[in-house]
Inverse folding.
């Protein structure tokens, strides 16, 4: 076990952490995916309520009325003693973007869960990750009774760049969720090596 | 009045608001630089001069941070919102009770480390 007997100055190197975001619309399967591959725990953060009367209160200094808490899914996978993967499941609605900015900072990449019955719900997530240039994959959750679509049809509907992986998955299956994460990491490695090649060939 | 949000998950997620912010003296933001979600918090073991300062939540932080813990793990294990824990941490750091290390060298630019990550995931 690292750290147990170490003091801060001479102890082993701090573990490295990898952050992966799990995004997608309401009910798209984010919690299911995080819990099928990791120890899932709830994590709460604060949301500032923008109700006008509450803002007035805040100006008067009664700050504690202006926030409420929202929950996200939080999971961790220990790769080695010195390497941990953290998963953060975040709601896809615009009003939660205040969390996304913090979450995407330093992240390896993101999984956008898409429900083919409500594909439009994944637009904001796709837009967001495209804009901040974060590697992402789209995982199409195959819900019971929903029509099956080919990945290419989903790609066209979401207007994705040709390089963005689109995979069918069943978030309830550990192996399926795991495959989605592997594809994301491989995609990130590919973008990284492509970037390096672009730099060295300049 | 605050409109009740219609999202199912938000209703489920709403927790006690009053107690955590009483603990922080009504502050909703920590002073100084924001602690990264994955920053590691470690109890220093330094004695505390002002024992009246110590609330059960501070003691909880100290107990959990005998070995380094990420801010996200801490908030989750303490069942407190992130912002509250950030305020506790900045107060505790001021008193020398904890040290906070930023996440170490960025592994995201090292393809070898990322290949280890992919391999580890494949074995899950
Ligand atoms: N058939 C099928 N059902 C799924 C799949 N993934 C999730 N579900 C079910 O869909 C429902 C919603 O899944 P959640 O994981 O709670 O979705 P979520 O994105 O976390 O939802 P919110 O946090 O409420 O936005 C649950 O009843 C799951 O069991 C899947 O791949 N296939
Ligand atoms: Mg959920």
């Amino acid at each position: 076990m690292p750290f147990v007997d170490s003091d801060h100055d001479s102890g082993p190197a701090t573990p490295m952490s990898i952050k992966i975001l799990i995004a997608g619309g309401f009910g798209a399967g984010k919690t299911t995916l995080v819990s099928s591959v990791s120890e899932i725990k709830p994590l709460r953060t604060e949301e500032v309520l923008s109700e006008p009367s509450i803002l007035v209160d805040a100006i008067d200094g009664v700050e504690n009325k202006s926030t409420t808490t929202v929950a996200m899914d939080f999971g961790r996978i220990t790769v080695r003693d010195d390497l941990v993967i953290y998963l953060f499941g975040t709601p896809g609605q615009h009003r939660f973007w205040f969390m996304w900015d913090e979450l995407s900072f330093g992240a390896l990449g993101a999984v956008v869960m898409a429900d083919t019955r409500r594909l439009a719900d994944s637009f904001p997530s796709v837009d967001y990750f495209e804009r901040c240039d974060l590697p992402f994959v789209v995982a199409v959750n195959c819900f019971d009774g929903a029509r099956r679509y080919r990945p290419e049809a989903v790609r066209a509907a979401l207007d994705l760049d040709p390089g963005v992986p689109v995979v069918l998955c069943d978030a309830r299956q550990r192996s399926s969720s795991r495959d989605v994460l592997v594809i994301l990491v491989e995609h990130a490695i590919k973008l990284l090596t492509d970037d390096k090649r672009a730099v060295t060939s300049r | 009045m605050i409109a009740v949000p219609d999202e199912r998950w938000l209703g489920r997620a709403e927790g006690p608001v009053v107690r955590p912010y009483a603990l922080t003296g009504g502050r909703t933001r920590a002073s100084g630089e924001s602690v990264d979600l994955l920053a590691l918090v470690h109890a220093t073991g330094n004695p505390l001069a002002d024992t009246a300062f110590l609330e059960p939540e501070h003691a909880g932080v100290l107990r959990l941070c005998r070995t380094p813990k990420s801010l996200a793990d801490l908030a989750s294990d303490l069942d407190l919102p992130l912002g509250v824990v950030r305020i506790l941490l900045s107060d505790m750091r001021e008193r020398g009770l904890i040290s906070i290390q930023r996440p170490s060298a960025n592994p995201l630019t090292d393809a070898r480390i990322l290949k280890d990550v992919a391999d580890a995931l494949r074995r899950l």
In short: Residues A 24, 26-32, 91, 141-144, 170-172; B 8-9 surround guanosine-5'-triphosphate (ligand 1) (CB under 6 Å). Chain A touches chain B through 59 residues (CB under 8 Å). Residues 16-200 of chain A form a domain with the Rossmann fold fold (CATH 3.40.50.300).
